[in-house]
């Protein structure tokens, strides 16, 4: 009998299955007012949206993209030195602050919750710095209370979505005149979801079968099925010394409330680093070895939590990182380059980035990789791996290459 899956592994498996299967997924920056959401959004995306010191400075969501840091892409760019260099991008949405009672409409909450419904993953920004000059919506710093507030509102919103979905199914059964009934799977699934949400437990932390997950994806757009990356906004001093009294408590809370990744960062530090003309001197002045910007980790973690991966095309004209959903087939990946390429797909010539770097000998050629037996020809059923370097052979509508 196989060993029982741990809670963590089961949650990771569920997150990978919940939600949309697309290549253009988005992370939304969520949290209470005045915790640093818009400032973080500006730093991630090089934008200049309002980030004022008062609640609800952001009303309509702002959306932009940020390049995904990738040492593999950098290596290919340095090697080929092509005139066109295009990295992978992560789409990020800055969503207005939520407050207690948002699910009942407080603070324009229902509109803001619908904005969270529209994204595919969440950067949950929580404030852990003390600053009397920066207003806190509850007048005091208590990250655990703030985490409870946001999760409570998300669960209440999902509970309302669930009740609407059940009512819609029951109405359809009534209108059918007895031609069909609610399936046992649907009844069991919705009962279990209601029990979780009424306890302020996110749906993603439950144990779900594949048919149940497919039903959830089909019938309702739930917020608490989305992956969450928790971002603890510290003071510059705390970030540099890598200590804050709240971090261990926040980590424990996350593990007992559905799980998720925790990344400490500091808007204050990041703004100073961003504005510094000599960034190495800025880091040296911090007086601590190994200190670095947390933004690359935030971006790459959000990207991976959405189950997005990269494949590369490289040549004299262009080096490019393409984004596909994890599990995409070779024809689906070809369609990302051009919609017709998936239909006209013949084969994919593939080398992993690791094999290419090991065997290319510093040459922008696949000759040594082929000689080492690390260059493969793959067909329509091939599942693209993160870091693949691919050359697609595409036919024409008339059947010729």
UniProtKB/TrEMBL annotation:
Any Pfam family hit: MMR_HSR1
Ranges where the OBG-type G domain occurs: 25-285
UniProt-listed InterPro entries: ATPase_YchF/OLA1, Beta-grasp_dom_sf, G_OBG, GTP-bd, P-loop_NTPase, TGS-like, TGS-like_dom_sf, YchF_C
Keywords: ATP-binding, Nucleotide-binding
Record carries keyword Iron-sulfur: no
Listed GO CC annotations: cytoplasm
GO molecular function: ATP binding; ATP hydrolysis activity; GTP binding
Highest taxon above the source species: Eukaryota
Keyword Nucleotide-binding: yes
The protein's name in its UniProt record: Obg-like ATPase homolog
Record organism: Rhizoclosmatium globosum
């Amino acid at each position: 009998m196989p060993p029982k899956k741990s809670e963590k592994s089961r949650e990771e498996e569920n997150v990978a299955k919940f939600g949309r299967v697309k290549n253009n997924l988005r992370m939304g920056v969520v949290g209470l007012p005045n915790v640093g959401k818009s400032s973080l959004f500006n730093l991630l995306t090089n934008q200049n949206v309002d980030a004022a010191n008062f609640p609800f400075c952001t009303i309509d969501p702002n959306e932009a993209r940020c390049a995904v840091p990738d040492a593999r892409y950098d290596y290919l760019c340095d090697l080929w030195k092509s005139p066109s260099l295009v990295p992978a991008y992560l789409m990020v949405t800055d969503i207005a602050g939520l407050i207690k009672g948002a699910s009942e409409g407080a603070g324009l909450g229902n509109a803001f919750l619908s904005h969270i419904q529209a994204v595919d993953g969440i950067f949950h920004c929580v404030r852990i710095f003390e600053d009397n000059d920066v207003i806190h919506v509850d007048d005091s710093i208590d990250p655990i209370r703030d985490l409870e507030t946001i999760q409570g509102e998300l669960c209440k919103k999902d509970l309302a979505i669930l009740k609407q979905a059940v009512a819609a199914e029951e109405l359809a059964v009534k209108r059918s005149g007895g031609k069909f009934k609610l399936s046992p799977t649907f009844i069991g699934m919705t009962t279990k979801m209601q029990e979780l949400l009424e306890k302020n437990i996110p749906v993603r932390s439950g144990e779900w079968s594949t048919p149940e997950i497919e039903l959830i994806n089909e019938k309702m757009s739930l917020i608490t099925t989305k992956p969450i990356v928790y971002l603890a906004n510290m003071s510059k001093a705390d970030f540099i010394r890598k200590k804050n009294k709240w971090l261990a408590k926040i980590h424990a809370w996350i593990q007992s409330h559905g799980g998720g990744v925790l990344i400490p960062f500091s808007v204050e530090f990041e703004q100073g680093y961003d504005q510094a003309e000599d960034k190495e001197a800025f880091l040296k002045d911090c007086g601590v070895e190994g200190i670095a910007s947390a933004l690359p980790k935030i971006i790459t973690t959000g990207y991976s939590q959405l189950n997005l991966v990269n494949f590369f095309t490289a040549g004299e004209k262009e080096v490019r990182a393409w984004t596909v959903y994890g599990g995409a087939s070779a024809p689906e990946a070809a369609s990302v380059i051009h919609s017709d390429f998936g239909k006209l797909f013949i084969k994919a010539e593939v080398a992993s980035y690791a094999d290419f770097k090991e065997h290319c000998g510093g040459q922008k050629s696949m000759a040594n990789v082929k000689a080492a037996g690390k260059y493969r020809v793959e067909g329509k059923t091939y599942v693209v791996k993160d870091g693949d370097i691919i050359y697609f052979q595409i036919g024409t509508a008339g059947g010729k290459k």
